[in-house]
Amino acid sequence: MRILDRSVYVGPSLYARFPVIRLELDLGALETWPTGRLGEPFVAALAAALPGLAEHGCSYREPGGFLRRMREGEGTWLGHVLEHVAIELQNTAGEEVTFGKTRAAGPPGVYTVVYEYAQRDEGIAAGELGLRLLVSLLPGELRPADGVPADWNWAEARDQFIRFAQRRALGPSTASLVRAAEARGIPWLRLNEQSLVQLGHGKYQQRLQATVTGRTPHIAVELASDKEETNKILASLGLPVPQQELVQSETQALRAARRIGFPVVTKPYNGNHGRGISIRLTSEEEVAHGFKVAREHSRSVVVESFLEGDDHRLLVVNGELVAATRRTPGHVVGDGEHTVAELVDLVNQDPRRGVGHEKVLTRLELDVQAHKMLERAALTAGSVPEQGRAVYLRSTANLSTGGTATDVTDVIHPDNREMAERAVRAIGLDVGGVDFLSKNITESYRKIGGGICEVNAAPGFRMHVAPSEGTARDVAAPVIDMLFPPGAPSRVPIAAITGTNGKTTTARMLSHISKMAGYVPGLTTTDGVYIDGQRTVQGDMTGPVSARMVLADPQIDIAVLETARGGLLRAGMGVNEVNVGAVLNVQPDHLGLKGIETLQQLAEVKRIVVEVASDCAVLNADDALVLKMSGYTQAKHLCYVTMNPQHTLVREHIRAGGRACALEAGVNGQMITLYDKNGHIPLLWTHLIPATLEGRATHNVQNAMFAASMAFSLGIKLDAIRQGLRTFDSTFFQAPGRMNVFNEHPFKVLFDYGHNAHAVAAMTDLAQRLDVMGRRIVVLAGPGDRRDEDLIAIARAVAGRFDHYICRRDDALRDRKSDEVPRIQAAALRAAGVAEAAISIIPDEQEAIAAALNMGQPGDLLLIFADALIRSWKQITKFKPAGAAVAPSAPPPAPLSEPSGDGAYRAAEAPAAAFSLEGLIRDERGVHFAPEAAD
Fold it and tell me: What is the mean pLDDT of residues 662-689?
């Protein structure tokens, strides 16, 4: 049993609308060993290792259902068991995950196992540890030799996993703030592996690190960390504080203790979490020891008078006390029968206690500090305390060291409440915790005394949201209300665009429209990330990483996300929800890659974009596969885009008050028209949109219709939409590799990135619509990772419509021979009736473009499909036609094909004669060269 492949989805994917991990699991010989055959010993051992599995309902939808499924009949297969084990391991570490599903994946014994995760690394580790656990429980004869080491210990491995998970988890305080934000519908992003979190998107974002907010003044944090200054400020305001001195040496500490008077407390000058604190020190020897303990955490040590009373944490948010808790140090209570060590074990059996922050309470530990506390009480771990005696194992009451918390918010005296609020305001914190000692919190400090030990920046919330006793307090909600007052925005509008072709141009159009409307757009595309029109990151940025990058930028107030098939299949979407989602088309491209074999499967992938749309789904009504997606969206509005004004379904949709965008004919040309709520809105003549080349580029007419529909659905005003479309052109600067036109040579050059049959056909159609006095020449290629039938389809899309064809390949061969792609396409052209003399094979892209440029004559049109866009565009713009003044330079490399007498490049005759479409044979990969034709 082994994991063949793993994918981690950060957002909506084919499998779920939330983060999941997909494993491709090969059971091998265990395919014939379901749990029914493995028997009760295996099931019982697994249930004992993970008792929480007893709560899994599985298909029975009731506690115990999964274990019942394992026991009944032939049981279930180990892929399904691993799914539940990975989920339960995360539950054991304190995560709330429940979703999983397992399906056969084709070959016998291979399964797709999908399960929800809360943290990426924890989720991966849960799958790996779960697999190891299952292997360890197998009968000896089924256990692989290299499976589990003989000395492997499940309990140790489980606890290590829990600690591993907790080191990567959000702390209890940050997690409570995130949950409160989610309850308000506020999105969030984790910005590092610790507790730095962004709430909200773009310019509306607020940041948190634990319970320090982006609004917490730095000087207030510094003051709270400076115990001496805090003490002085509070004392100057008449607030109750102990007498205190700051010392740097043991001698100074002893002198300070004598001046203050015993008993005293020693603590680090800038410590936290109760580390290094020693209390109730009654002798110089104890003070000397306490100084050494505190010095381990800080160069300076505070000596202060010891105040009698219970330890209370008073939490103040935005100037108001929101919770009060009495804290008790970790301890056991004697029963006259058990030793201290045995009492610790009994206390740790409390199901509320766990490792670290795994549960409400933390396990007690008999460590060095506990033994020191026992020594001070004249006890050892083997002592048997008398009935009712409290034996403290810690001097401080922190929950992280086994302490307990009792909520006292409802009974705190008003004077004590006011005192805490004044103290936090005096330091300047927006969120602060006051450590207050009082014998009775229900009585005023003015009457019975008491004092403020510390004012804490970044106070922990765990004791308030999950007290050991008393009412849990939602202390995170007031923080979120402070950062995002009711009615304040937290989200930026998000538009996501997918489709086989046109998505980059449409995304750029929409981004341009939004900028014309006064927004600061964040844009992700196949060539980079753009913030307010400036490229900040170069590369193919159409996946979830780039989406998060844009939404984390504090400038943007609208996001336009080009969303490609590859990112969806590899890691899902980067956001759980978009305002407007659009699918432009579904055409054959990338088939045969990543398990997507058919157009229907490709449509399911692209459908994710509209499945997560909340406000409007924009669909191409002229594409049957896209049209069917209307049944899968939960968006408030459905907007159809059609270039057919007679479209029956769209007509009925409009008559029912629905939203649509149609292309309508008029006296002056074709008008892009919007319909909504029975309103008819003529938007713009297509010939007024520069990117459509006076309406001839029908594919860009359609792209403009989608951009307009999405902008309208985002609430952008009509005048801004018109202005955006009228000022967006297809220059290389605005849309590199998207129908760029260069007119500075005696001939015209059309430059495009089209790399599938549908895109190539659209550009070929445009080339036929343009008025050309001379010849039409095309430079053709296809990506090496496409199926042979896809490469042939690209060639057929241009066949018979040009005067000369130059076949090349991309720089990246992608496991093909250097001239394999151009030869396949040349053969397809010949099979389609193109004359041999009209075909040239020049594999290298630069040489192929150079040949086309040299071939160009006044009045010609060159359609160049390029892969290396910047390099190729520079080659075109810097080309000097024959007769133009040019500096001497080295001659270009000779092409593989020889030029004919008229200057045209033609395929070398011998290879061409040896290769034809009929010479192709088919195997499991598809069409490829016959052996005799491959030389």
Answer: 94
Task: Provide the residue type at 469 as one letter.
Answer: E
What residues have CB less than 8 Å from 636, skipping those under 6 apart? Answer: 614, 615, 616
Backbone φ, ψ for residue 721 (5° rounding):
-65, -45
Quote the CA–CA distance of 252 and 89 in Å, as a whole number: 52
Beta bridge partners of 101: 114
Residue 373 φ then ψ, to 5°: -65, -40
In degrees and rounded to multiples of 5, residue 236 shows phi and psi of -65, -20
**DSSP-H helix ranges across 361-496:** 368-376, 414-427, 445-448, 462-465, 476-483
Please list the residues that pair with 906 across neighbouring strands: 898
365 pLDDT higher than 90: no
932 CB-contact burial (10 Å; exposed 0-12 / middle 13-18 / buried 19+) = exposed
Q: Crossing angle of helices 78-92/154-168, nearest 10°?
A: 60
* Helix intervals (H) in 770-878: 788-798, 820-831, 845-855, 869-877
Percentage of residues in the chain with pLDDT exceeding 90? 70
Secondary structure (3-state) at 591 = coil
User: Which has more pLDDT, 627 or 195?
Assistant: 627
Percentage above 70 pLDDT, the chain: 92
**402 vs 362: CA distance, rounded Å:** 5
- Report residue 834 as tokens: 């193109």
Give the pLDDT of residue 356: 60
- Residue 594 gets which letter from DSSP? T
**For the chain, first and last CA: distance in Å?**
43
Here the tokens at position 715 are: 């609430």
More confident residue, 68 or 595: 68
Residue 247 CA to its chain's centroid (Å): 49
Q: What angle do CA 855, 856, 862 make, to 5 degrees?
A: 110
Q: pTM of this prediction?
A: 0.78
The C-alpha angle with vertex 473 and arms to 469 and 479, in degrees rounded to 5, equals 150
**Is the pLDDT higher at 377 or at 825?**
825
* Element (DSSP H or E) covering residue 525: strand 521-525
Three-class SS state of 829: helix
Residue 291: enclosing H or E segment and its boundaries? helix 284-295
Phi, psi angle pair for 228, to nearest 5°: -70, -45
CA–CA gap between residue 655 and residue 90 (Å, rounded): 52
Angle at 808 between CA 802 and CA 811, to 5 degrees: 145
Task: Say how far residue 782 (Cα) sits from the centre of its chain.
Answer: 32
Cβ contact 231:241 at 8 Å: yes
Structure tokens at 918: 């009929």
> Which tokens go with 324?
């009060």
Q: The tokens of 234 are what?
A: 């509070």
Three-state DSSP state, 597: coil
Residue 201, token pair as written in the block = 């998107």
Count the alpha carbons within 13 Å of 171 in the hemisphere toward its beta carbon. 19
Average pLDDT over residues 287-301: 91
Residue-level pLDDT at 390 = 87
The span from the CA of 517 to the CA of 15, in Å, is 37
pLDDT for 111-148, tens place per residue?
Answer: 999 999 999 999 999 999 999 999 999 998 898 877 78
Pick the more confident residue, 526 or 429: 429
pLDDT score of 583 more than 90? yes
Q: In 159-186, which positions are buried (b, 16+ CB within 10 angstroms) versus exposed (e)?
A: bebbebbbebbbbbbbbbbbbbbeeeeb
- What is the rounded distance in angstroms from the CA atom of residue 49 to the CA atom of residue 580? 47
Does residue 87 carry a pLDDT above 70?
A: yes
Could you give the C-alpha distances from 43 to 47, 61, 137, 153, 154, in angstroms and in order?
6, 19, 9, 19, 16
Give the dihedral of Cα atoms 351, 353, 358, 361; nearest 10 deg: 130
**What backbone torsions phi and psi does residue 503 show, to the nearest 5 degrees?**
-70, -35
Select the more confidently predicted residue: 577 or 194.
577
